[in-house]
Amino acid sequence: MGDEVSTEEQIRSLTERLNEAEETLRAVRSGEIDAFIVQGPRGEQIFALRSAEQPYRNLVEDMLEGAAILTLEGDIAYCNKRFAELVSVPLEDVVGGSMERFIAGTDRPLYRSLLTAGSGKRRARLAAADGRTIDVLLSFTTSMADEVERRNLIVTDLSELLVAQQQSQAKDEFMAMLAHELRNPLSAITAAVQVLETAKGRESAAARARFIIGRQAKHLSRLVDDLLDVGRVVTGKIALDRRAIDFCDLVRRTAAVFTDREAEHLFSVNVVPAWIDGDTVRIEQIVSNIIGNAVKYTPVGGKVTISLTVEGAEVVLRVEDDGFGITPDLLPHIFDLFVQGVRTLDRSQGGLGIGLTLVRRLVELHNGSVSVSSDGANCGSLFTVRLPKVAAGGAPGTAGDAPRARSCQRRVLIIEDNRDAREMFRMMLELDGHQVIEAEEGFAGLRLLRAESPDVAFIDVGLPGLDGYEIARRFRCEAAANERRVLLVALTGYGTPDALERSRRAGFDHHLIKPVNPEALYRLLNAEDSPKSRTLAATGVAAPERRLYNERLSWCGVEQSGSSSGS
Amino acid sequence: MEYVLKLYVTGMTSRSTRAVENVRAFCEKHLEGRYDLQVIDVYQQPALARTEQLIAAPTLIKKLPLPLRRLIGDMSNEDRILVGLDLIPRT
């Protein structure tokens, strides 16, 4: 009986194994398997079909890291495409050679210890065949294949990461410095205001306080301008409005700003007649930055020598000082963003470390070059700007300071919600002899604009109620048939091309950026006297249209030609 | 009755990944709430594969309930799995 059961059991077991074998054969025949597993004396081996390896191959070949398999001696047995790219050697020339030749000399001991250890991660520098040095992370692991020990190496390019880290750090430092730079003039202004309040009857103290407020406010404006400019320089969004410029006159005028102001230094200015093709505003910026820099880094009583010469096809401006100089380690980086020399304790002449970056970029945009030399600390420095020479142009001194005549009286409407700004603006205009009415919110402003029909309306764009753009739009819409046209001027803190375009579309004639430049304001109010510019205003040709990318000139936008036709 | 299943695959190769999908779907449909499925990569865990006397991959093994059953292939035929796991009798 027991035997029978056993036999029956055996048959059942055999049948099952037969079924299983049949199933296996069927699966193999119909291509349902990826790999065979074969038992060998040292465990099982997996024999994958070709397709089975493909995903791993793709993984390694397509990854952004370099991968290589090395012998224990450090010869490359295999590498992926990315590895060959990193070391700049054709794939076929990499395999078989030594890995060490791609490691920068000083990092070779480190590499060798990793190779010996067979496991670990270290930062090192790769010496590519094209001469580049690349910061990388080397990750070593070890594996056995067919009883042979190999080193697996993954090479991760850290360049982008490191650059990003450096930028982020530079940005942090910059923000800290910016806060400091903004606080300095603000505290000077605050103190000066305090002096004004308590200095009743002491005119000299009050005059000094006013002078300081003016100077520090100008300094603040310049910081903000630089900030705006540097953004555009970095993104390459500066468009030049080129024309023939009397460079000699420009240098003389720009230098005069400093010689008038900085009685603390000895200036020597030697210029010869020279013309260049450039954007007046930008060239002024270049010259003023370089002279300003010399002044900033030269102690009181020091000498600043400005010379302009013509050398062959080039106009050469040299600004030399006998000041703090530049140390050899700083010299190669002096034109880099956010780089500054050692600062004086009080930082009275502080800046953002972006002036020279602006200078270099602007000079390059003008097809010129700028260079610097210095014999080291306290040996002064020499900046040389070279620009292509052009033939003398028309009327010299196009951008010169016009002698300030008494302005004609205008009826001016101010629509501005900030009380202090409105009050100061009003005082400024009234002192200049104009008749001023004001509104502090949009609807009231529009009513006044309709009822009073002033000569000029300054409208802050960000207003409660009706915003400035809407006021301009509505007013322009209604007043289209009016013969007498009100000059509409947008007041805004934004100088981007978008902001200018938006003002233009709303129907503004001009776009003034806060803080309003008194000189630009004066020119704007007075240019309306001439019949030509009267036509200009009446035809609605706004400065922003011409100089969309340069809000500085749009400040004083009335100096344009009358060539454009109106709406 | 609790089913203990082990699926042996060779990494992310096409039939192996297909087998994983098919077995998961099968279990959810026929064994919902009463199965325990482990997926084992024979590359990563060769020691686990050793004891199973595997011939090819993918292989699905029913450990419990007894008797032990092996199925080879990408598990694309639902009926064959039903038979292989003794869920319906062999014809």
Description:
The complex is a heterodimer of chains A (567) and B (91). Chain A is an alpha/beta fold and 567 residues long. Chain A folds into five domains: 2-48, no CATH class; 64-157, Beta-Lactamase (2-Layer Sandwich); 168-235, Helix Hairpins; 243-390, 2-Layer Sandwich (Heat Shock Protein 90), CATH 3.30.565; 411-559, 3-Layer(aba) Sandwich (Rossmann fold), CATH 3.40.50. Chain A has 18 helices and 19 strands. In chain A, strands 8, 9, 10, 11, 12, 13 and 14 form a seven-stranded mixed β-sheet that branches. A five-stranded antiparallel β-sheet of chain A has the order 4-3-7-6-5. A five-stranded parallel β-sheet of chain A has the order 16-15-17-18-19, sandwiched between helices. Chain A is elongated and about 130 Å long. The termini of chain A are far apart. The model of chain A is unreliable at 343-349, 395-406 and 529-567 (pLDDT under 50). A four-stranded mixed β-sheet of chain B has the order 2-1-4-5. With 91 residues, chain B is α+β, with helices and mostly antiparallel strands. The model of chain B has no long low-confidence stretch (mean pLDDT 84). Chain B is globular, with a radius of gyration of 12 Å. Chain B has helices spanning 14-30, 46-50, 78-84; strands spanning 3-9, 35-41, 56-57, 59-64, 69-72. Chain B has three helices and five strands. Chain B has a single domain (3-84), classed as Glutaredoxin, CATH 3.40.30. The A-B interface holds A 16, 19-20, 23-24, 26-28, 30, 32-37, 39, 43-44, 46, 48, 51-52, 54-56 and B 9-16, 42-43, 46, 49-50, 53-58, 67, 69-74, 76, 80, 84, 90. Strand 1 (35-40) of chain A pairs antiparallel with strand 3 of chain B, so a sheet runs across the interface.
